[in-house]
Write a structure and sequence with these properties.
The chain is an alpha/beta fold. The chain contains 11 helices and 9 strands. Helix 6 links the parallel strand 3 and strand 4.
């Protein structure tokens, strides 16, 4: 089957097709859809061509779900998979089958930050690629722990790759790329992070990882979305087991006590 261009795939996603449907769409089918929706398709094609030209100038590579380089870990989540992913850095990290995601709350306490850092360093030292979300708190600590032992890390973000969210992590983002790591987003440039996109980002963290470790979070936290996606995708779910229960680690305790994650002594 002749693969479609990324602009054509952007059209199909805008048209509302799921990624499994797009994968099966050839040029003949696309042209048929175009004939029926030429006004909308022309707008999408014109807009996407400008966007992807600008992305290429910024050093951002876009891979479509029809591309042989599209990671199998994302294909495995079916309709949850994005039709397009956008990358800066070491794309070969996406072919790793045993990546470890280390996640947690932004407002973690000292124990939570320490746990994320130590786990990032520990697993990176054993050769694992560390996945996290470039947020403040546990995410930042996990990336920094990995980098402290010259490990490789993937930062999956909820904005376009022309910006950094949060801005406080601009230097960390540069360090990740300089140390042969990878930035990944399903958002095109110009798109800013928001609560909905942050939740969507969480599913990608779970999808590209074999194991997901919750460093620390309270009872109500966005990190729990990642753990739910991990269970949905049949990934290994671990949560740090803190000896002293606090409001900061109540999310960990609930997952462990309910059997939704295995306790991890770090």
């Amino acid at each position: 089957m002749e693969t479609l261009t990324i602009e054509e795939i952007y059209c199909l996603a805008g048209y509302g097709m799921t990624t499994p449907q797009i994968i099966k769409t050839d040029l003949t089918k696309f042209e048929s859809l175009y004939d029926d929706n030429s006004y909308d398709f022309d707008k999408w094609l014109d807009y996407s061509e400008k966007v992807f030209d600008r992305q290429e100038a910024l050093g951002i590579r876009t891979i479509s779900c029809q591309d042989a380089a599209y990671p199998s870990s994302l294909l495995s989540i079916g309709s949850d998979a994005p039709a397009l992913i956008h990358l800066i850095g070491n794309e070969s990290l996406l072919s790793v089958s045993d990546a470890v995601a280390i996640i947690g709350a932004r407002a973690a306490d000292r124990q939570g930050i320490e746990a994320a850092f130590r786990l990032g360093a520990k697993y990176a030292s054993s050769g694992k690629v560390i996945v996290s979300g470039l947020a403040l708190g546990c995410d930042k600590a996990a990336h920094e722990g990995c980098l402290s032992v010259a490990g490789k890390t993937i930062a999956i973000v909820a904005s376009g790759l022309d910006t950094t969210h949060p801005k406080e992590n601009i230097a960390l983002q540069h360090r990740i790329i300089e140390n042969d790591g990878l930035l990944l987003s399903e958002q095109i440039i110009g798109v800013k992070a928001n609560p909905t996109r942050l939740v969507a980002r969480n599913r990608l963290q779970a999808a590209v990882s074999k194991t997901i470790i919750l460093a620390q979070c309270p009872e109500h936290s966005g990190s729990l979305h990642t753990m739910r996606f991990a269970r949905r995708y049949h990934r290994e779910c671990l949560a740090v087991d803190f000896p002293n229960p606090t409001e900061f680690n109540s999310g960990n305790r609930n997952l462990i006590e309910s059997g939704l994650a295995s306790a991890l002594k770090y």
